[in-house]
Amino acid sequence: xDAGGIQRLEEYFRRIGDVLGEESRRGSFAIYAMGLxxxxxxxxxxxxxxxxxxxxxxxxxxxxxxxxxAVDSRWSDREVRRxxxxxxxxxxxxREPVEAWIVDDTGFLxxxxxxxxxxxxxxxxxxxxxNCQIGVSLSVxxxxxxxxxxxxxxxxxxxxxxxxxxxxxxxxxDIPFKTKPQLAVQMIGRAVxxxxxxxxxxxxxxxxxxxEFRAQVRSLGLHxxxxxxPQTTISLLDNEGRPHGEAxxxxxxxxxxxxxxxxxxxxxxxxxxxxxxxxxxxxxxxxAGVPKGQQEPLWLLIEWREGEPEPANYFLVxxxxxPTKKQLIRLVMQRWRTERVYEDLKGELGxxxxxxxxxxxxxxxxxxxxxxxxxxxAERVRHFPPSARGADEAHAQQLQA
Length: 401
Description:
- The chain is of the alpha+beta class.
- It has helices at 3-20, 23-37, 45-52, 59-72, 77-95, 157-160, 163-169, 180-193, 205-208, 211-219, 250-259, 325-333, 337-349, 359-383, 391-395; strands spanning 100-109, 119-123, 128-141, 146-153, 200-203, 224-228, 233-237, 243-249, 264-269, 276-287, 298-304, 313-317.
- Strands 1, 2, 3, 4, 5, 6, 7, 8, 9, 10, 11 and 12 form a 12-stranded mixed sheet that branches.
- The radius of gyration is 23 Å and the shape is globular.
- 39% of the residues are buried.
């Protein structure tokens, strides 16, 4: 990092320090953050303390200091994350507007059964049911950048409803069991309250199939473009915008369109790597089962990949107007960018290296990792304007029919 970068990092740490308040917290945050930004292979508290302390005799004291900061110190995750988000978004939005808010979740693989929230459950990170924690995230994306703003630990009912486990893990009394879509809505609501520039909410079918999730997103003043399960039922709209015919599943709708040859090929990524394309169909619909006064016209976008026996994805999109099929495809495909962010957070910043067992410690560790990532994004924006970025990255977010 050059002198300018070092100065900006120091100024950034001061901004976060103003939120943390106490001088001891400021110093502990800086040590912890530098431990995550550094080159060490393991980025849990003990190795961070060892690397930060050249005198082996003082390593234990440093370890206890950082442990206290992560587990016992009462600082606000929301306020720290909000300041980090503002820092990154200030840089990002000077260059281009926010386009999307992306909801997703990732697994934190664990060996034992005592870490808060851990159990055998499915995670896309491993592609199977395994022993892990699940973190639900909210990220914000422009056309070329993507920054995670918030994370919540999913507490399975086996944890949320077990008094002894709650006490041992220091789960606050006001934290009830919430589904992953409910956690996502909670984070979206916070972001709206904090004045984050609005974008279309993107999520996979684990979230989008919930009519309640979709309704709550709309009640917060946001539009959505979300995956839904094949059994989701809809009604077609006629040319006057009125429902007609019986409600059918999106899977049956896709079969009917396919029989009539209604799918068309669209390329949604074309660059130095392989060209990615599929066949798509678009229809104007309303969701079935919604009271008449609450129905709104939606776009149903269906993706059917070559050689597959049935569609790969179904999307319901609430954006107004008459977007083109290419625009809608480009929008929904942005959700996949979150996977790269997870890789960077885990591989470079030790997001999943926290070895503590308690609820406050998990969230504090994640907060520091989010702060580090926000700084990296802001630096990248300053050093690599859109015209200087690689052609593949630019093309990855463009659609060509």
